[in-house]
Amino acid sequence: MPVTLRQPGWSRASASMVLGLAFSYALSIGARAILGYDPLLDGESVMRIALISVPFFFLVGLGCFSYWFRWASGAPTVPEDHSGHGAKSWKSYFYPNTDHKVIGIQYVVTSFFFMFVGGLLAMLIRAELAAPGRQFVDSNAYNGLFSVHASLLIFLFIIPVFAGLANYVLPLMIGAPDMAFPRLNALSYWLLPVAGTMMMLSFFAPGGSFATGWTAYATLSNTAPLGQEFFTIGVQFAGASSIATALNFLVTIITMRAPGMSFFRMPLLVWANFSTSLLVVIATPFVAASQFFVLLDRSLGFNFFDHGQGGDVLMYQHVFWFYSHPAVYIMMLPGFGIVSEILAVKSRKPVFGYRMMAFSLLAIVALGFTVWAHHMFVSGMQTWIRVPMMVTTAIIAVPTGIKIFSWLATMWKGVLKLDTPMLFTMGFLTMFVLGGISGVMLAMIPLTIHVSDTYFIVAHIHYVLFGGSLFTIFAGVYFWFPKMTGRMYDEKLGKLHFWLTFIFFNATFAPMHVIGVQGMPRRVADYAEQFASWNLVISLAAFGTGISSLVFAYNMVASWRGGPRAESNPWRSLTLEWQVSSPPPIFNFDEIPTVVGGPYEYGVPGAVHGVFGGSPTTAGPGRRGPATTAGAPSA
């Protein structure tokens, strides 16, 4: 008979953290004794070891490694009784859980928490920049604000929130009962709050938080105060989480598709996450390596980046950007998949050029590794590499342009339903095209030299990552909210959220193009009087953007608690996740479906996508043909 394990508690995790601190101090004493230093005078070594060991002790105490430890020690493994699988109550979300749906919600909620923290830091930044001179913080504190702001939103929000949405819906989309490695999936989530907490705690480090930006350029990061190591080590935990999740996605997609689901019957969101996972697995070790080199420089004096000791400071930038430009597509490709799903459903039309859309995702993966040095046009690197990087940067716009025209063709003469997910999707198309245009402009070497390190760059990255990634995130959350919670959101509040965000976002970042071209430098706490008027406008608009996020938060919380009950398929979608109850059963399907058609055959008479025990799922009312809906069976 299976044995039910007692769920490890937070008290055990807290005790483990205390043990981790004791271990750090003892290890520091031993190391410094061997090297001949007085350990009592070197608290930095204790902190450095603690930043690495305490999170592992916490994860062990929480139970993330229990099964593997039993296996590694040779003890009999406990038969799986699924006691840690599925959401039995709200408490299930505060412990390691092997259900991909629970993990998906954990990812999404935790990532949005870090978004609100990063957004609060953005409000403090804009409050300081509302007028020239010092308002609230000095230059060092300001540097910490924008550094933690960017790091949280990139490493702890945009990248993991896409992983959370995919964690929830991807196994359902391909007809799988769960992810390929459920325990690894649970561990990958719990690495995330560790990394985020570490970055936020950097404000309490001696000398203040890390203040070198999210790029953490050496040699500045080599000589920064102790707070820098909160970033250097925190990125390692966030990167490990990303790699574990990406490997899980790849194996799940390749090996666990339902019968009949060939690669060219997969929804484009699955294609997008397949492509993203390839990027993550290949590229993320490079950012881990860059920060590992910095850690070795700081702690053991390896001098990888110290020119005076034979190091090469440009090597850091090459290694870092070899990850960080593909990272832009890690933060974009899942959004492309979300947009494709929503446009097909809300236009009631098949996706135009489905196979070309899939191939363009793979083309972006390949080309994404050929453009990293366009971030280094003014770094002092060899001049001969500039022109090839300019050319490849222009070329990578081609597969992205294919997607834009395919989306527009999908909407052409469709039966458009302009609800909240569709509004955010159309807002994304507008904002991302504008961000892409400025990106192509920045591919041109003379313009990049002129606007380098100005607010033009700030405007560009926010049009891509806020107007691009965040708009698709909001669209995806609204679209799959009924499936994830079993409730419907408030449509009026959703539309209010969109219009507030759309208007105030453009009012915030469009003027930055103007003052950037005029020479307003980025990453400064003070600026010339000539930029005062525009900065006041930008700050006021930024506060409006912050207010819009509160509308979203209220809508999500209130609707989750007491919104109307959702139907199993309120959007009349063809993809498999909408053919089960909302929220889905613990293992998704009572019986594995057989896929017999494509996922986007809306308006095609007699089109069938999946079969559940002989009961087909067909398209709802579309642009062509009669209204032929079949009741979606609840598993």
TrEMBL record:
EC number from the UniProt entry: 1.9.3.1
User: For the region Disordered, what residue ranges are annotated?
Assistant: 614-635
The portions of this protein that span the membrane are 49-69, 102-125, 145-170, 190-210, 230-256, 268-294, 320-344, 356-377, 389-410, 422-449, 455-481, 493-516, 536-557
Example GO biological process? aerobic respiration
The alphabetical list of record keywords is: Electron transport, Heme, Iron, Membrane, Metal-binding, Oxidoreductase, Respiratory chain, Transmembrane, Transmembrane helix, Transport
Domain Cytochrome oxidase subunit I profile: start-end pairs: 90-596
Any matching Pfam family: COX1
| Cellular compartments annotated | Membrane
Mode of membrane association? Multi-pass membrane protein
What is the stated purpose of this protein? Cytochrome c oxidase is the component of the respiratory chain that catalyzes the reduction of oxygen to water. Subunits 1-3 form the functional core of the enzyme complex. CO I is the catalytic subunit of the enzyme. Electrons originating in cytochrome c are transferred via the copper A center of subunit 2 and heme A of subunit 1 to the bimetallic center formed by heme A3 and copper B.
Give the record's family classification. Answer: Belongs to the heme-copper respiratory oxidase family.
Name of the protein in question: Cytochrome c oxidase polypeptide I
- Species assigned in the record: uncultured Solirubrobacteraceae bacterium
